[in-house]
Amino acid sequence: MLRELSTFIAVCKYGTFTGASARLNMTQSAVSDHIRRLEEYLDTQLFHRTGRSAKLNPAGQEFLPLAEQALELLEKMRKPSANKPLRGTIRIGTIASMHSTLVARAMVLFRHSCPDVTIRAVRLETGAAGHVEREELDLAVTIRPGRLPSHPLSWIPLFRTPYVLIAPSSWEQDTWRSALRRGPLIRYEHSTAGGRSIDEFLAHERTTVKEAIWMNHFDAMATLVSYGAGAAFVPLTRLIVDTSNIRIISLEEKTFYRELGILTKVASEKPDIATARFIDALKEVGTNVEFSETVARL
Q1: What is the H or E stretch that residue 78 is in?
Q2: Are strands 231-235 and 185-188 parallel, antiparallel or unpaired?
Q3: Quick one: DSSP state of residue 229?
Q4: Are 256 and 163 in contact (CB under 8 A)?
């Protein structure tokens, strides 16, 4: 309820939902959603629903000083001190391929400095920006979107890894072009950023392939390749290197990359400390990811 109270007070202070959204680094729809949730919680309307200005009705006028007092108390309760451990919950979304590697390692590092903060992590492949903007997640570790997000979201780059072609070890072809002519291609779903990157590569190279299977998990694709089901474009990771019965074929000068980073809300006047610390943990772990290049050096 802290976010809803903060939004309510901002609307009162700046006079319109638009003014509050600009000040809070939120979309106007998110502001409206916060006010709706607060009114549902109180079971009463707080504003006159006429005109562009946000004018308090009698119930809203009566509630405003109470909201200010409640927010002040809540801020004092969550403010960390030298003798008070950081508490609360941080909600994280992550693509499947990073769930048990980068994110898991960051969780361990984060727990050393914030042992009393609860972590709730969920896997997701699409819709990361919407989840973060609606504040269903505090941050999401995902593939760089084709169009970088704008206010109120922020993109924090971590690193990139090269795509390679993997083929069954029984295939004798030693180039990616000859391997694609040898057998079918296991494809990554169009709906994902990775799938679109592969589609763009094939279109740019004017390469026609025989499609065998469509999937949305690179680890499962590697397993199918090891069984001889076909070839697949995948980002180079330790999992791929350790998979038996496959050949890793470089794309050489045609190499394209998967860029990983963090989607989060633009920092406000009072940034969430737990979220900031988890981002720091991701950055630290990200500098040691195998087969990767830090984006800052590109």
Answers
A1: helix 58-78
A2: parallel
A3: S
A4: yes
Tokens of 71: 């927010």
Token representation of residue 271: 């940034």
| CA dist 35 → 1, 5, 38, 266, 268 (Å) | 11, 8, 5, 20, 19
Q: Are 139 and 279 in contact (CB under 8 A)?
A: yes
The Cβ of residue 186 has, within 10 Å, a number of other Cβ atoms equal to: 23
Backbone angles phi, psi at 130, to 5 degrees: -65, -40
Dihedral angle, C-alpha 82, 83, 89, 93, nearest 10 °: 40
Q: What is the pLDDT of residues 110-162, one digit of tens each?
A: 998 889 999 999 988 778 888 888 888 999 999 887 777 777 788 999 999 99
Cα separation, 159 vs 173, in Å, equals: 31
How does 215-248 read in b/e, with b if 16+ C-beta sit within 10 Å? bbebeebbbbbeeebbbbbbbbbebbeebeebbe
- The band of 181, judged by pLDDT with boundaries at 50, 70 and 90, is very high
Residue written as token pair 């949305």: 216
* Chain CA centroid to CA 199, Å: 22
Q: What is the pLDDT of residue 298?
A: 40
Q: Count CB-CB contacts under 10 A for residue 191.
A: 10
> What angle do helix axes 102-113 and 273-286 make, rounded to 10 degrees?
130
Classify burial at 88, counting beta carbons within 10 Å of its beta carbon; exposed 0-12, middle 13-18, buried 19 or more: middle
Average pLDDT (212-218) is: 87
The answer to whether 289 and 159 have CB atoms below 8 angstroms apart is yes
Contacts 24+ apart (CB under 8 A), 104-109: 105/285, 106/278, 106/281, 106/282, 106/284, 106/285, 107/281, 109/281, 109/284, 109/285
